[in-house]
Amino acid sequence: MKKNRIFDRYGRIAAVDHKYTGEEPSWDGCQSWTIEKFMNERSRMFNFYNYYCSSKDLFDDLINWMVSNKYTKDQIKAIKSGGERCVSFTAMKLARAMNNGMLPTREDVMEYIKTKPGLSADEPHNDDVYVKDEVDSVIRQNIVNKKSQASLNSDDGVKMISPLERLSNKVNETIISELEVMIDDNDWAESQTKVESINLVQLLKANSIPVKGLKEIYNWLQKYETSLQNAIDKENEFDVEGWAFLSKPAIRNRLKAIKDMILQLDKYSATNKKVRKPRNKKVKSAALQVKKLNYKESDDTYGVQSVSPLNVPGSRMILTFNTKNRRLGVYVADNPISVKGTTLKEWNEDKSFSLTIRKPDDIIPILLKKTEKQFTKVIDGLKTKRGIVNGRINKDTILLRTL
């Protein structure tokens, strides 16, 4: 059963039924796997994504695959405009797997296919080519459709207008036109006494004018405000002459009405402006965080190999082992640990420590197989002096365990 929350905060599939499906396939070291293990894991990958995901969930993975394969912005835009239905779900699953490190093909795939009854292939298997063919086909079709639409618009003489142009037209037809009528009204044109302002707030609400449509109204009002003020201050001879038919008190009355309407716009803007929520800091996916992590995959001397680095981001405890100086690093965190470059971040300095293991062959199996409570008791019993840790992972460091 698919859950609403498909991904965890690090971009991994939240495998809620992992007891039955296993965790999301990890492709570390897949180039050295046997071909049977590689193909079995590839097959499990399809079933895993079928179980947890839809094409909508993996659409971003397809876009990320396009970015890494240097598609242009226009080509990516063509796929985005088509939506998740424009490319097959199979292509999206392959794109995510390749983003996570799956090889698109191997030299021994064809030999494997020949040994399996019912499987056949005329051409070498390559998942990268498969996804590329589908994506390129959609892009070509999009170009054809655009040309057809452009021709249709040209033939019909239809002029497309932008949303901003449409809003501007609406403001002019509903608000500016009312202001023009007000200026031409007999009271405004001739009266030497007090004049009334329009209830702009009511007019704006009645016509559902958004805040971004107020700019033209502000410009209209401010033009008259400047002209009237110039007439009073005698700053501009054209404005003085233009309002010469009115007495000074009459000009002040009109200036007061204009300022009242500007104040109405200020209140309307403050009331209707959408408050943008503070943007949450985007957490990088586990794959991006560990992209440059420099660690040792395995060590024959001590017979150990590192866990997948994809498990490091989000962990609350990490055990590392430096094979060069036999130094054990114990990183404990109050919040999920993250990775930047080749350094662990956000671990608790007071709770984390390092120490030298004198008998690695005895201690390492305990660290790998026992519970946290059990191996902590063993570590506490070691008499070697504890030191600090700096979070840096290097080519001699095994990622022993994550919790």
Task: Tell me what you see in this structure.
- This protein is of the alpha+beta class and 403 residues long.
- It folds into 3 domains: 18-156, no CATH class; 163-272, no CATH class; 286-402, no CATH class.
- 50% of the residues lie in helices and 8% in strands.
- The chain is elongated.
- The relative contact order is 0.07.
- The model has no long low-confidence stretch (mean pLDDT 84).
Keywords:
elongated; 3 domains; four-stranded antiparallel β-sheet; 16 helices; two-stranded antiparallel sheet; single chain; alpha+beta; 8% strand; 403 residues
Helix-strand sequence: HHHHHHHHHHHHHHEEEEEEEHHE
Structural class: alpha+beta
Contiguous low-pLDDT stretches (5 residues minimum) are none
The coarse silhouette is elongated
Give the N-terminus to C-terminus distance in angstroms. Answer: 26 Å
Return Rg in Å. Answer: 34 Å
Instruction: Estimate percent helicity.
Output: 40-55%
What is the number of E strands? 8
Quickly describe the structure.
This protein has 403 residues and is of the alpha+beta class.
Task: Please write out the topology.
Elements: H1 18-21, H2 35-52, H3 55-68, H4 73-82, H5 89-99, H6 109-115, H7 127-156, H8 163-184, H9 186-190, H10 200-206, H11 215-233, H12 237-242, H13 248-272, H14 286-289, E1 298-299, E2 304-305, E3 317-322, E4 327-332, E5 338-340, E6 343-345, E7 353-356, H15 360-369, H16 372-381, E8 397-402
Antiparallel strand pairs: 1-2, 3-4, 3-8, 4-7, 5-6
Helix pairs in contact: 3-5, 4-7, 5-7, 11-13
